[in-house]
Automatic annotation (TrEMBL):
It is a single-pass type I membrane protein. In the N-terminal section; belongs to the leguminous lectin family. SUPFAM superfamilies: Protein kinase-like (PK-like). This is Protein kinase domain-containing protein. Keywords: ATP-binding, Cell membrane, Glycoprotein, Kinase, Membrane, Nucleotide-binding, Receptor, Serine/threonine-protein kinase, Signal, Transferase, Transmembrane, Transmembrane helix. It comes from Rhododendron griersonianum. It comes from the Eukaryota. GO terms for cellular component: plasma membrane; plasmodesma. GO terms for biological process: defense response to oomycetes.
Length: 698
């Protein structure tokens, strides 16, 4: 391997460092490929050939892409790919290991993707390569692949402002676990953060059949150009045919146009892959086609973002796997996002449904037909008798937790077939204040359906009683698993998994609905865990739902027991923004890392406030000394560095030089956390006596 003595060089504008891509000598490449042996060729195209290779004395299998001198992908594209992939790390983006440009050659070395391209699996099956077991991709597997590819593109758009410009099934690779990864960044461009209006003016490049017509006509490249191409990919997955096929009738030549025509005519079921017969639920086919069709909208502004595509596909997969309502009946046709926990507890009598609009006071009763026309989310209204039966008349043995304001019981509904959590408000606060918070929680939750947000099933509010019924979460509050209890200490990997879940829930609040929702009371006791340790954000009684296109509001609400989590800038200005939640999330990250509460009044003055103590130790380079003792020597050092960076970002002042970054934190934080997990898994645990290492990384 060749490298500079300084450990950092700049070639053709690409900064190469020890942490960047590895520079191979041509001799190393020849050794890895047995001097470019044709028997090792696993792919070829206009760019050249791809070889299966072996590096590190045969210990690592790689894919070696050798560009032809005659290839349209010249030096510019070669260095663009190196520059782009050297700054990107994501589970759904192919990893660039290194390159070689010795003696004028242009060679790229990637992680080896054993299951090839999505195109190969859809309509170019090879018995020799895959074997008979891999001829048929089942529908659920196809959905998972689409979700993975969509997540990769979403990362490019939201985290790096990169437009791929050549999205297609031959650039979606699959590893041994069928995880999809986006590849081939030679044509990529750095765009802007605005996904709808902003654009890059450029010569038209890409692949025929996937090209966005608006980009072709105007030369204005936007992230929505990638969305258009992904819509074509979705139809390829559904129909198992290439985007352009000159061997069929003229009207069927373009897959995108043909599929859109069939949707209008109601004949889409006639063009799907015959091998999928009977696998796709009728409603699933309809929704999948609608998502793909929206991606192909004539106007870029009419297309969804990749984040929205991901959300839709995930909901489809849940439905396909039986984790959401079936396709029968008016309710599931109108409310595709009702989670299974709600569907199971529903009594399909119209007089057991309530509408949560709050325009004329508290919920009014509607018949189901009227309700369906409104499109407003619904909840079941329980009778007091049902609540008493579910809790054995509020028996103390079923009491899960309580404080001065509430009591929470574990109950059973639906003839004992569904376990739920029942929250009974008992506080001495004025009944008007309690009712406002009660209504607010229902109204906010009526706009939210997400894996990482607590699901509300129903409520009761008569005879001075205010009761909420939620899905039951077997592991309870995160708080109970971090602080001294009889529970086993949470391992680091599980803590990361939980933090990622919370970040996803928070991201959905801030950008997953038409109206921004600010939690305003985010803390450890508002994070719940189901039986699989999936984190769910709850506690929405103080949340604020902002008008459309508004990102901040004035608020003088001070949550009494939230002092250690509250954003100092909010306290100073009374201006509530998404950043206030991000600050609170940063406090949670520190609690998870340090295993201590945000405020401990009995500590020395410099240790009372967790955030301030953390910053002090950052400056001293002694972060390793404040970590939860249960995690000693159990976190990879590189993982610790990255985690500390994320926590620091959460507490950056918007007046600092990092203000612009701070505005994007909900999305960037999620990406950072997701990328920390493989770092932790891949690297060895080492002793932390490395003040400089942790300090320098931050």
């Amino acid at each position: 391997m060749s490298s500079s003595d300084s450990g950092s060089t700049t070639t053709n504008g690409v900064h190469q460092s020890e942490e960047s891509s590895r520079c191979f000598s041509l001799a190393e490449i020849q050794l890895a490929t047995n001097n470019f042996d044709d028997t090792l060729v696993v792919g070829r195209g206009g760019f050249g050939k791809v070889y299966k290779g072996f590096i590190d004395n045969g210990a690592t299998v790689v894919a070696v892409k050798r560009l032809n001198a005659e290839s349209k992908q010249g030096a510019k594209e070669f260095w663009t790919e190196i520059k782009t992939l050297s700054t990107l790390r994501h589970p759904h983006l192919v990893t660039l290991i290194g390159y070689s440009d010795e003696f004028g050659k242009m060679i790229l070395v990637y992680e080896y993707m054993v299951n090839g391209t999505l195109a190969d699996l859809l309509y170019k099956p090879s018995r020799k390569r895959y074997g008979p077991d891999f001829y048929h991709l089942e529908w659920d597997q196809r959905l998972k692949i689409c979700i993975g590819a969509a997540r990769g593109l979403d990362c490019l758009h939201t985290e790096q402002s990169v437009i791929h410009r050549d999205v297609k099934t031959t650039n979606i690779l699959l590893n041994e676990n069928w995880i999809a990864k986006i590849s081939d960044f030679g044509l990529s461009k750095t765009g802007t953060t605005n996904q709808t209006q902003s654009h890059v003016s450029t010569e038209v490049r890409g692949t025929f059949g996937y090209l966005d017509p608006q980009y072709f006509l105007t030369r204005r490249l936007t992230m929505k150009s990638d969305v258009y191409a992904f819509g074509v990919v979705l139809f390829e997955v559904l129909c198992a045919r290439p985007p352009v096929d000159f061997g069929v009738e003229e009207e069927q030549c373009s897959l995108a146009m043909w599929a859109q025509r069939c949707i209008k005519q109601g004949t889409l079921d006639q063009i799907i892959d015959p091998s999928l017969s009977g696998e796709i639920p009728a409603n699933g086919l309809k929704v999948f086609a609608e998502v793909a069709n929206k991606c192909l909208h004539n106007h870029p502004n009419g297309r969804p973002t990749m984040a929205e595509v991901v959300e839709s596909l995930v909901l489809m997969l849940d439905d396909s796997q039986g984790n959401s309502p079936g396709s029968k009946g008016i309710i599931s046709k109108v409310f595709l996002r009702i989670p299974s926990i709600v569907a199971k507890g529903i009594d399909l009598k119209w007089n057991n449904w309530m509408i949560c609009g709050f325009k004329k006071g508290f919920p009014e009763r509607f018949q189901i037909e009227q309700f369906a026309d409104t499109g407003i989310q619904l909840y079941r209204k329980f009778s007091l008798a049902e609540i008493r039966a579910a809790t054995n008349n509020f028996h103390e043995q079923l009491e899960a937790r309580c404080n001065a304001v509430i009591k929470v019981y574990i109950g059973d509904i639906a003839n004992g077939n569904l376990k739920v959590s029942i929250k009974r408000i008992i506080g001495r606060t004025s009944s008007e204040t309690n009712m406002d918070q009660f209504r607010n929680e229902i109204q906010v939750l009526s706009h939210l359906r997400h894996l990482n947000i607590l699901s509300l099933i129903g409520y009761y509010n008569e005879k001075n009683e205010m009761i909420l019924v939620y899905e039951y979460l077997a592991k309870g509050q995160l708080y109970l698993h971090l602080y001294p209890t009889n529970n086993e200490p949470l391992p680091w990997e599980k803590r990361l998994q939980i933090c990622i879940g919370v970040a996803r829930g928070l991201q959905h609040l801030h950008g997953g609905t038409k109206r921004t929702i600010i939690h305003q009371n985010l803390k450890l006791t508002c994070i719940f865990l189901d039986e699989n340790w999936v984190a769910k954000v709850g506690g929405f009684e103080f949340s604020r739902m902002l008008p459309e296109n508004i990102s901040s509001t004035n608020s003088n609400t001070f949550v009494a027991d939230n002092a250690g989590y509250m954003d100092p800038e909010y306290l100073a200005s009374a201006k509530l923004t998404e950043k206030s939640d991000v600050y609170s999330f940063g406090v949670i990250l520190l609690e998870v890392l340090c295993g201590r509460k945000p405020m401990i009044m009995t500590r020395d003055e410099d240790q009372v406030n967790l955030v301030r103590w953390f910053k002090t130790n950052i400056e001293r380079g002694t972060v390793d000394q404040i970590i939860d003792p249960n995690l000693t020597d159990k976190i990879a050092l590189e993982c610790l560095k990255e985690y500390v960076k994320v926590a620091e970002k959460c507490h950056k002042s918007s007046n600092s030089l990092c203000g612009k970054l701070h505005m994007k934190l909900p999305c960037s934080l999620l990406g950072d956390l997701v990328l920390i997990r493989p770092i932790h898994s891949a690297l060895p645990r080492v002793k932390w006596r490395s003040k400089a290492a942790v300090h320098d990384a931050t």
